[in-house]
Specification:
Elements: H1 2-36, H2 42-49, H3 53-60
Helix pairs in contact: 1-2, 2-3
């Protein structure tokens, strides 16, 4: 029974990590799309992503 409970906890933790990764990828996709469409600047997108403009450009506009 204890083994089963531990497996359930690990499975839930994995799901939560997956959800967080998905959310981060979604935010990143939206920011890059907004920049490409000219709706926000690279400076604003980088600020929202918590990185420098240079880092954002390298990652988003490769």
């Amino acid at each position: 029974m204890i083994f089963y409970m531990e497996l359930c906890r690990r499975e839930e933790k994995g799901r939560e990590e997956g959800r967080e990764e998905g959310k981060a990828e979604g935010r990143w996709g939206i920011l890059t799309e907004l920049v490409r469409d000219g709706i926000i600047t690279v400076k604003e997108a980088a600020k929202r992503a918590g990185m420098t403009e240079e880092a954002f450009r390298k990652l988003a506009m490769h």
